[in-house]
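Researcher: Re-running this chain for the archive, since the previous output was lost when a drive failed. Same request as before.
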Amino acid sequence: MKRTLLITAVLLCCFALCYAAIADMGGQWSSTFNAPDGNAYPLSYTFKVEGSSLTGTLETSGMSVPLDSGKVSGDDLSFSVSVQGVTYSHKGKYFAAGDSIGMDVTFEGNKGHIKLSRPK
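Model: Regenerated structure tokens:
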């Protein structure tokens, strides 16, 4: 009986921690993308998490574009955005300890990495 209660309590704690990590992904995030052409582009993301669905926007270079196909699973997230006919696929991981997101971005055969942090 005690063992069953202990296992149940541990599982509930794990679920609560995963749920808290997902909930903490929401909100404002910022980064800079260093493009292969040498230009640096400031990025501002707004994420909204509902269950396993991720929605929001990316703001860069004076334009705002919606996130497409956004998904969240545990502390992993993925989505894409289309800017001027180019699709940028994003796959990342949320790090609760540092309140940051590491993100791989692929587009037109190129791949880059960005680190998102909360704006100060």
